[in-house]
Amino acid sequence: MDSIADNYASSDSEIDSDEKKSSLGSSSETLLARLPAEIAEKYSLHPSIPKTSSMSLRGANKGVQYWSTFLYYEWRPSRQERMQLMKIVENFNSYCRESKLPLTKQLYFEPLHVSSLGAPLALHVSLSQTINFESEADRDTLFKSLQAKVRSSTELNPFMMIFQPILRVLPSYAKDSLFLILPVDPGIKNREMTPINKIIREALTETFPQKRAEEIQKLSCMPPSTHLSIAMATNAPRSALDNLNILNTLIPEEQINDKIEFPVNSLKFDKNRQVLSIPLGS
Amino acid sequence: MDDISRYVADEDDLAFEYELQRTPQSVVTWRRYLDSWKEDGRPDSHIVWLYERFCRQFQSDMEIWEDYIQWLLQRCGKSVEYTDIMELFIRSLSYCAKNCEDLCIMFLEFAIGQLDLKYIRMAFDISLKRLPRDGHGRVWEKVLRFIDETLSPLTRNEETEYDDIFEELSILIYKGLFEKTDEGNHELDLWTSLILKRYLDVCPSEQRPLNVIRIAQTGDHDFLYTAYRKFYGNGPQSTLPYSTNLLYLESLESLNKREAYEQFITELAGVFPENWVELKVTLVKFYIKSAQHDKIVHVLEDSLARTQSVQEFSVLYSTYLNYEKAFIDIVLQELKNNSQVIGDWEQQVESHLSRLQGLIESYEIRLNDIKIRRNPNLVSNWSERATLFPAAAGKCDVYSHAILTIDPYRVNIPGSLGKLWCAYAELYWEAGDFDSAREVYDRGLRVPYPYLQDLEELWTTWAEHELESFSIEFAIKLMEDALQVPENPELLVDRFKEGDKKVPAQAVVFTSLKLWLLYLDFTESLSYDSSEYTEKTIALYEQMIALKVATPMVFINYAHFLQEHREELSSFQVYERAIGTFPPETQLEIWDLYLTEGTAEDSPLAKEQIRDLFDQALENLTNGRIDCKTIFLLYSDFEEQCGLLNRCCEILLQGARKTANLEDKITLWQMCISKAKALLGNEESRKLYEECIQSLPNSQVMKFVVDFARTEAVLGEIERARELFKYGAQLLPPGRNGLLWEKWDEFEVRNGNKESYKDMLKLKRKLEKEMRIETEAESQLEGNIAFVAASKQNVVNPEEIELNI
């Protein structure tokens, strides 16, 4: 990662204000607009590749073929924001390395806003777990339902996602890795995250009428827990995973000096390899 | 009757008069009376007087009226006015209510012949009244033919001819903007229109389209508008010819029904899609005429964006260009000539000027638009478009639009889409925005390509850029990432091959030789300074071999790499593995290198090992029917260096015997004989010469015969040498055996006498004769083809074909 970090300093042609716009058609003579969001959304995921002999050409196992989606707010950090995030992660890694506690010494976090090959990546505030469907039509039903509800909602409008200036560590779903996260600001959780959560739950209930309320609740991310993962430590030691509460209390509060925020204009919905956008307040 | 004395002139007349007094109903008497007057040459007025009396007597007899009229018709224009005849027709028909069909038609034909619309109309009306319904067809036919042949050409509007579209548009713009004329003032043929109105009510439905054309030609647009709507409704009709629809369109224009016009022409373009361009131009002209300039740009821009061919584009672009030019030209002239002109003309001219400039500048781009519309998935169209934008930002827009438009599954040129992504990333890289460039590469690698070449293009370009701008380590990391080998490589390759483009090329990136070679280049370049990279390079070679992507050249490079790192024995093992991997056709080159390196001075291989290798090589290759001259030569050299001279010659002899290729065979014989002479002495060469001469074709053997003879001469065996020359002389006709005869000549001069020289010449003459005769005899054998000289007139050749060229 060091070489990638070095490269950031040499790249200076990106301008933040430009980045916040969709760049199609808005070009200047001297500065190049960054890769349009539409392209990033069209080719969001790598194509699926058959892995075993029993897999069909569609890339899924013949016996348990399913479709899935994932709901989230997306942030494509600008160069300056990426540098800011990199600094936070590096500082936290330094803290872990220099700490006298064996619990943190073995931790090393890789940033999530940049790929291992140095390509900038988008970060997500998850609004749901991965949702699986038995048919493609069910997934379309959820999308249409969300679209209609978001459109008709008076409470959902574009807003600025703000984070608490603190770092926390959370385990992965498989409990084998740790994520370094920024919790969403409490005010945002109350104001903006509550209505979207309600809409998602309602849409899920409509799509899966047979599911119980608890199951629906499990599929969505409840507002109090919403956060932004900024780095990941793979192969985290067992001791760290078992003592997360202690670990979190040990993290110094003064890790973040600058405000971290990004504008939210649309709800993102994964569909196959592309991302669909549902604009807020349209 | 007062004037009877004027007409009754003689006794015969009186006799007829008395006769008529007695039998007034006798048609015969009347006819005889008329005939006698006609024979006597009485004045026409007398005969008319008599006919009138005759007709009065038989008022309802059509035959008599017809006779009278026929007589008058002969005098029409001379002693009789045509109007009198017309009146007579009317009078006669007023008495006849029945069976007057012929008279009616005669009247109509006469009226039409006189081109008198009043009487035509009267004849037409009377005919329709008097004739039964089934006879109306004849009447309509006459009148419609008159309309079509005589009236329509008179009322047809001649299209104004313009030199070019610029002139046409200029005039239309001027008229529309500055010359407000009464559009309703046009030629109108009401006479025909009224007739056609009546016809439209009775005509069969299949005749209606023709009638619409007739109505249009009368200029009665109100009637055409009403009639069309009555029978066809508001919209265009596919059942009517395109031109007929256009006539209705003209009526809408003439009646100034703007909305109906716009709607109709739009729908018409849908009904007749092949005419859509022409219709758009017509619509533009309509807007110009009606001074609706605000709508023109929209129509033209919209139409240009729809064009699918250069032809369509040219028409619309030319209209657009000429419209803008004409507008500017006309308005500027008007402003110059008339200072009283009111309005924001200057502003308008400025706007048109700016549009004209844009139009000229965007010509190439608009042409490229057509190509892209026709095939948006042909990447070369987008690449061509990018070249039309000089600035990087413009190119960026083109590439991003291309990527959003192109469906990777529909791209048919392997590697082209990958190149487009690379060109896009290149823009950022050149601008120093490496992050964005990497983001482009990263997204480009997520496209489900049907062809491996696209991914190869992206990975290699990205890696080369990282190498040039940053570090080789990063380029290596990229290659490492690209060439991750999956758990089940063979299965994936099979899936990809069977998948019919449904399995993305990402599944088989690890089979890319191009990427492996690049990866090897990177690691090899570092291997001279770092043992870590030496091991890594070896591991890569091994991985390629395991994945079966290694070519013979990869094996050879691997062997050389090991040799450079002082691993000669390992390198020879690589050769061994290559030989075990590839078929005999490919093995020769590998063996060649292996044995060359294996027999080198510093080779760690023992002589016996080398001999075994040579034997193995020759066995493998000769069993596979591969000519291996180089291996024989190499083996022979090796044995010579080892001091085994007999073995050295023996190997060459084997080679000469086993090699099939004639050129190689001759080389090996030459080498074999020359080595035998040099190493073992001239005597040893005798048996080799003999075998060589017998095994080679006559055409190739002469050099060896001459050499053999020369060798014998050197050994003092003059007679043997002479016999050899004699033997050689009989193998080919003297004409084709120049070398032997020349050398024999020299031999006899040096070693022979007059007698032997004469014998030589005698033999030569004999052979010249024999070999020629033999040739002729051979060709005359039954079944053989023979040329027949054209000069031999008496030769009968049944196979000869006479060609008349």
Automatic annotation (TrEMBL), chain A:
GO biological process: U6 snRNA 3'-end processing
Record keywords: Hydrolase, Lyase, Nuclease, Nucleus
Gene Ontology terms for molecular function: 3'-5'-RNA exonuclease activity; lyase activity
InterPro entries, per database record: Usb1
One protein family per Pfam: HVSL
Signal peptide stretch: none
CC per GO annotation: nucleus
Start and end residues of each stretch annotated as Disordered: 1-27
Protein name as annotated: U6 snRNA phosphodiesterase 1
Biological source species: Torulaspora delbrueckii (Yeast)
Automatic annotation (TrEMBL), chain B:
Domain Pre-mRNA-splicing factor SYF1 central HAT repeats: 272-406
Residue ranges annotated for the Pre-mRNA-splicing factor Syf1/CRNKL1-like C-terminal HAT-repeats domain, each copy included: 415-775
GO BP term (any one): generation of catalytic spliceosome for first transesterification step
Repeat in keyword set: yes
GO cellular component, one term: U2-type catalytic step 2 spliceosome
Keyword annotations: mRNA processing, mRNA splicing, Nucleus, Repeat, Spliceosome
Family: Belongs to the crooked-neck family.
Protein name (Swiss-Prot/TrEMBL): Pre-mRNA-splicing factor SYF1
Species per Swiss-Prot/TrEMBL record: Torulaspora delbrueckii (Yeast)
